[in-house]
Amino acid sequence: MPALFIVKDTPYSIAQIIKSLEDKELKIQLDGQQAKKIKANRNYLEQKMSQKDAVFYGINTGFGSLCNIKISTDELSTLQFNLVRSHACGTGALVDPSLCRLIFLLKIINLSKAYSGVRKELIDHMILLFNMGLVPVIYEQGSLGASGDLAPLAHLSLMLIGEGKCYYNGRMQDTAKVFKALQIQPTTLASKEGLALLNGTQFTLAHAMMGVYQAQRAMKYGNRLAVMSLEAFGCSVDPFHPMVGRIRNHQGQIKVANEILTLLKGSKLTGNKKYSVQDPYSFRCIPQVHGASFSAIEHVSAIVENELNAITDNPNVSHEEDLILSAGNFHAQNLGLVVDYLSIALAELANIAERRVFQLIHGERGLPPYLTADAGLSSGFMIAQYTAASVVSQNKQLCTPSSVDSIVSSRGQEDHVSMAANGATRLLKVCENVNTVYAIEALVACQALDFRGAENAGRKSRELYSVIRKSVPRLDKDRVLHDDIFKVKAILKALN
User: Fold this and answer.
1) Are 116 and 196 in contact (CB under 8 A)?
2) Cα(129)–Cα(95) distance, integer angstroms
3) Are β-strands 4-7 and 27-30 bridged in parallel, bridged antiparallel, or unpaired?
4) What percent helix, strand, coil does the chain show, rounded to 5?
5) 214-228, pLDDT tens digit by residue?
6) Residues assigned a catalytic role
7) Whole-model pTM?
8) pLDDT digits (tens, 9 = 90+) for 47-90
9) Suppose 342 and one of 160, 300, 424, 437 were both cysteines; which one would form an S-S bond, judging by CB atoms 3.0 to 4.6 Å apart?
C-alpha cells in the first residue's frame, strides 16, 4: 500500500522529503486546515482585486520591465497563460525524472502555504496529476536564479495546462495525449496563478536538497574508506588523539577524529609508526580536511532546509495581515552561495581521497607498485589513479563559483541575479564525481589490504571489505576496471 504524504503547515526536513519520494507510489493529500487557509487567502486576493483602481504587480500588470502596463480584467487569465508559454525556454540536458518529481512536490508544498493567492482548485489539480504518476519534463538550463526559476518552472506549468511533455509510465510523452487517455481536463489559470507557479526557487532547491543528501552520505562512507586506507598504509593514530582536536576546537575536526578512532577499533594495522614518524597529509590531516567539509555540509544543510520551509513567491499575499507586498523572496542568493560552498567542500573530499590512492599505489611501505604482484607485465591500478586525477581536475573546474556572476536582464529591471540554478545543477555533477573517486579509493584500499592482511583490519573495515569483495574479486591479473568502479559506486550508494 503506497505511503501518504500530508501537505500541511509544518516544517519539513530534507531527509523526510527525499525519503518519502523513494516510494514510487507515494500519494499526497492536502491537509483540511491548510485547505481553509488557501481558500481564505484567495478570497482575500479577489476582494482586493475588485477594488477600484487596484494595481498589483503580475496580477493585473505585465511582468518584469513591463510591470507598469495595466491589464484589463477580462484578459487576466490570458495574461497568465501567456506567461507560462512565453517563459518555457528551457534548454540543455533533461533533468532526471526523479528530480522533476521532487521539484513538483516542492512547488505544491510552497503554494499550499497560503501566501500566493492561488485557488485551492489549482493545488487540487496538481495533487491529482502527482497522484496519477505524471511528472513534468524539465530542462537544466534557463534559470537565472532570480524572479524565480522561471524557465524550468514554466515547463512544469505547461503540464498543468495540458501542454508540453511529461513522464508517464516511465516514458516521455506529449501531455495532451496523456490527458486525453486518462480523461484529465487541463486546468485554467486565474489571476496571479501563472506567476505563482513560475516564481520560487523550487528547481534550485531540489538540486540543493539532493546535493546535501548525497553529501551527507558521501561524508559517512568517505570516513569509512579513509580508515581502510589508513590501515592499508600502516598509519599512526596520533593525529586522531582527542587532545589534537580539543586544542583547535573545530567541531567538524573533533567529530571526524572521534569517528575514525571508533572505526579503527580492533585494527592491528595502525598505530605503530613502523614506516615513518609522520604520515603524509592525506592521511594525517583527515580530521582537519574531512572535518572542514563536515562543518560545511552542516551549514549548507541548515540554509537549504530553511529554504524548503520558506515562502519564495512574489507578490506575497497575506490575508491575515491584510498585505499584498511586491518584494524579492524569489531571489536565490542564499542557495547560490551555499551550493557553491558545498561543491567546494565535496571537491576537497575527492581531492584528498585521490592523494590517498596515489600513496597506496606508489610502491612504498611494503606494498608493490600499482598494487600488482607482477608490475611491468601488469599495470594494476596505475590508470585507476589517472581516472581519479582526471575526475578531481574536472571538479576543480566545476567549482568555479556561479554566485559571483550576474547578468542584467529584463531591460534593467532585473539588474542583479544569483545564477544559483547553474551552481545547483553543477553541484550534482560534483557529487557524482566524488562517488567515482571514492569507488576508486575503495578498490585500491581493498587491494592494499589483500597484501597487508585484511584479516588484521578493524571490524568495520573487514565488514566493508567483505561487502565489496562479494561483487569485486581481488585483482590477481589485469582486467577491465570500468565495471569494478561502477559496481563499487552502487555498493557505496546503498550503504546504510
Assistant:
1) yes
2) 19
3) parallel
4) 60, 5, 35
5) 999 999 999 999 999
6) 57, 87, 199, 281, 284, 330, 414
7) 0.96
8) 988 888 778 777 878 766 676 777 787 788 888 899 899 999 99
9) 300
